[in-house]
Specification:
alpha/beta, Rossmann fold, 7-stranded mixed beta sheet, 14 helices, 11 strands
């Protein structure tokens, strides 16, 4: 999967244990799905997953990794990936914007992205198959980029991987989960909680003022293929200035989070948050207490990949060092299960396989 700030890759075993321990749980809402790394893992365990994110690239990732099923898309996707890997490059919007006006990719790879993305657009594919191919192209481009892991800036000197040739690969699309076919939605979280319903709600909201759209604007433009006007050294989409979320506002985040907690239609709530966000542990426990008794699990982790490298300005120049390399991840659990569940039970329980 793509490099991603806030990825829960290291938390997957714990999240799987927690959700797998909840009584009579067969379906899960992943309300802020991002890369769908969590939704993909939960689907692998056999749960029916309903993923949601308001960004187009994230909804496409969810359509590939949560909604699409291997048995219906794999053969056609493999054939088309082989076809696209034989295509020559053809310079266009992507090359001009992200290889000439900025330096996120080598022009040879930008031209390949242009040619393949235009080919995908002309084929009139079914949504799930198209999503698998777009994710394959997104991940191929991610493997040859020249960034620290976010698209706020590119490196002053080319990353070694940027010289490699772009190559599409088949994403890890799973078979349909035992408890039913999943879905992918693209809604604001408050709209999603009025629409979606499941046994478990997994809630992993943005932590601070940094918008995921600004951090991954190239993937948004690649997926939408709307060729928008851009601004700044990083050639961000102009709508990065306009598309706001209450969860990125210190003033509005608490009310938005409380509204989600109060309105989400699920028996069990599992919330991820860390000690670098707008809410303290005490804040989150207080918000969740309106839904029932709260169990909290703490995990110490390395920070995201960019924090291991340093702080860069929009020109890709290193301008500072990070203050710390580790943080505390909290997993909060609220359940109406009559059993007494302790944090120790949840953090050490075996992961049940549902598929």
């Amino acid at each position: 999967m793509i490099k991603y700030l806030g990825s829960k890759r290291t938390l997957l075993p714990l999240i799987g244990r927690v959700i797998g321990s909840l009584a009579d749980a067969e379906s899960v809402i992943d309300l802020f799905s991002g890369t769908s790394r969590v939704g993909h893992h939960i689907k692998r365990l056999g749960f029916q997953v309903h993923a949601n994110d308001h960004n187009g690239y994230a909804a496409t990732l969810a359509r590939c990794y949560v909604q699409a099923d291997r048995e219906t898309v794999a053969r056609d996707a493999a054939r088309l990936i082989a076809e696209f890997n034989r295509m020559a490059g053809q310079e266009g919007y992507f090359t001009d914007t992200f290889c000439v006006r900025s330096r996120f990719f080598q022009p040879k790879n930008g031209a390949r992205v242009d040619a393949i993305r235009e080919a995908i657009a002309t084929k009139g594919l079914a949504p799930e198959l198209e999503a698998v191919l777009l994710v394959s192209l997104m991940e191929a481009a991610d493997r040859v980029d020249s960034t620290t892991g976010v698209q706020m800036a590119y490196l002053k000197e080319w990353a070694a991987r940027a010289f490699n040739d772009l190559e599409m690969r088949m994403p890890d699309v799973l078979p349909q989960a035992r408890h039913g076919k999943g879905s992918a939605q693209q809604m604001d979280a408050l709209a999603a909680v009025a629409t979606l319903e499941a046994d478990v709600a997994y809630i992993d909201p943005p932590y601070n003022q940094h918008k995921y759209l600004g951090n991954y604007h190239i993937w948004e433009s690649l997926v939408l293929w709307d060729k928008p006007e851009v601004y700044g050294v990083a050639c961000k989409r102009v709508d990065c200035r306009e598309r706001d979320s209450a969860f990125n506002s210190r003033r509005a985040a608490a009310a938005a989070m409380q509204a989600v907690i109060d309105r989400v239609r699920a028996r069990h709530l599992v919330v991820s948050f860390n000690n670098e966000g707008y809410f303290t542990r005490e804040d989150m426990e207080q918000m969740l207490a309106r839904r029932g008794e709260v169990v909290v699990i703490e995990q110490d982790f390395k920070r995201y990949v960019g924090a291991q490298i340093g702080i860069y300005n929009p020109k890709g120049q290193r301008v500072g060092e990070v203050s710390h390399l580790r943080n505390t991840e909290y997993v909060y659990v609220v359940t109406d299960d009559a059993r007494r569940i302790s944090a120790t039970d949840l953090s050490t329980a075996a992961v049940p396989r549902r598929a």
